[in-house]
Amino acid sequence: MKKIGVLTSGGDAPGMNAAIRAVVRSGIYRGVEVYGIYHGYKGLITGNIKKLDVADVGDIVQRGGTILYTARCEEFKTEEGRAIAIQQLKKFGIEGLVVIGGDGSFMGGVKLTQLGFPTIGIPGTIDNDIPETDFTLGFDTALNTIIDAIDKIRDTATSHERQFIVEVMGRGCGDLALWSGLADGAETIMLPEKKEDLDTIVERLNRGIERGKKHSIIVVAEGVGSAYDVAKEIKSKANMDTRVTVLGHVQRGGSPTAFDRVLASRMGSKAVELLLNGDKGKMIAIQNNKIVAHDILDLLTKKHGFDENLYTLAKELSI
Ligand SMILES: Nc1ncnc2c1ncn2[C@@H]1O[C@H](COP(=O)(O)OP(=O)(O)OP(=O)(O)O)[C@@H](O)[C@H]1O
Ligand SMILES: O=P(O)(O)OC[C@H]1O[C@](O)(CO)[C@@H](O)[C@@H]1O
Ligand SMILES: [Mg+2]
Questions:
Q1: Is 256 in the pocket of ligand 2 (CB under 6 A)?
Q2: 3-class SS at 11?
Q3: Where does ATP bind (predicted)?
Q4: Pick the CATH number of 140-252 from 3.40.50.880, 3.20.20.70, 3.60.15.10, 3.40.50.460
């Protein structure tokens, strides 16, 4: 293999740039040319492709977002779209591809692999919703952004003796809510994986109030529903002064943490190594601090594991 490509696809995540840098530099170090494909699969179809040199990925390890831009591309889901993409890859002489993104992006990669075009995935999404990896790129940074925000919210919650409902991202996965809730000592954590009825939650809040606790933080994963609805229901069940904060896309930005930068570097290098060894249709993962690879079709039949122990611990510590 003499030329490989790299693209980012789906929602962006801090650490994607560090992964792009690692793919480009590991590729060049191993003697191959590396091409950046802009705007995800859309750029593959339109041929928005450019050779990247060592200097092109300088000064980006610390930057959030993705210098390659990202997109969701409906056309790539069609056979015709993918046929054009393959033509473009052939035109540029690119023989292997690293896809940095989420589960949808990996499905796209698998389709390319099935068409005889080797692809390796790197999990990049703040949600941490990918099976068979302990962490995805961006999760740790987003977590730290959330914690910083909740610490600030707690100051005002304490001063005004209010109950704050904070909505964090995570469409189908409650990891951001669970980890931030535990790290911030939230009184209640609401997750899509663990439905708890509001009466129980209100009872617990009331017990706290009886003990003299005048404020509390409730962290809600977006997959559970709107924080505004939760606040409305709490108000209807108990006379509490509530406020809502929806953290939104601020969670997707910012300079990646050291953890995400190191993870991105390890994953990017491993992806290139695998591709050049003739591997395909695999996703790089981290398990017990080891960088490993899993068959994408296999792993997409599974669900990201819910950490029951962490949930129990969070409950234990917020009695
Ligand atoms: N089944 C599929 N076949 C071919 N391409 C796909 C498929 N599913 C998704 N893709 C491609 O991958 C892109 C990104 O997918 P998706 O919007 O699901 O995001 P993702 O990678 O799962 O990231 P996230 O969910 O973290 O935002 C799609 O817009 C499409 O171009
Ligand atoms: O606004 P967008 O780009 O559609 O993304 C929103 C979604 O992306 C995620 O942050 C994952 O990247 C989800 O938690 C959220 O629902
Ligand atoms: Mg997804």
A1: no
A2: coil
A3: 11, 72-73, 102-105
A4: 3.40.50.460
Reply yes or no on whether 127 is catalytic. Answer: yes
Q: Which strand ranges, in their side-by-side order, compose the sheet holding 242-246?
A: 188-190, 216-221, 163-168, 242-246
User: What does the pLDDT look like over 210-223, one tens digit per residue?
Assistant: 888 889 999 999 99
User: Tokens 């939760």 correspond to what residue?
Assistant: 230
- Encode pLDDT of 81-128 as tens digits: 999 999 999 999 999 999 999 999 999 999 999 999 999 999 999 999
Domain with CATH 3.40.50.460 in the chain: 140-252
* CA pair distance 55, 27, nearest whole angstrom: 14
Q: How far is the CA of 266 from the centre of ligand 3 (A)?
A: 22
Q: What spacing in Å lies between the alpha carbon of 283 and ligand 2's midpoint?
A: 21
Structure tokens, 220 = 């809600």
Cβ neighbour number for residue 17 with a 10 Å cutoff: 28
The three-state secondary structure class of 23 is helix
CA-10 nearest atom, ligand 2: 12
- Between the CA of 101 and the centroid of ligand 1 the distance, in Å, is 8
C-beta of 125 in contact with ligand 2 (< 6 A): yes
pTM of the entire predicted model: 0.96
Domain 3-138+256-299 has CATH 3.20.20.140: no
Structure tokens at 289: 């601090």
Nearest alpha-carbon partner for 218 in 198, 236, 237, 238: 198
Q: Which of 12, 127, 129, 140 is flagged as catalytic?
A: 127
Q: Which of 105, 169, 176, 247 to mutate to test the pocket of ligand 2 (most atoms within 8 A of CB)?
A: 169
- Our CA dihedral for 305, 139, 163, 159, rounded to 10 degrees, sits at 150
Q: Relative to the CA of 41, which ligand 1 atom is closest?
A: 31
Determine if residue 243 is labeled as part of a ligand binding site.
yes
Residue nearest to atom 31 of ligand 1 (CA): 73
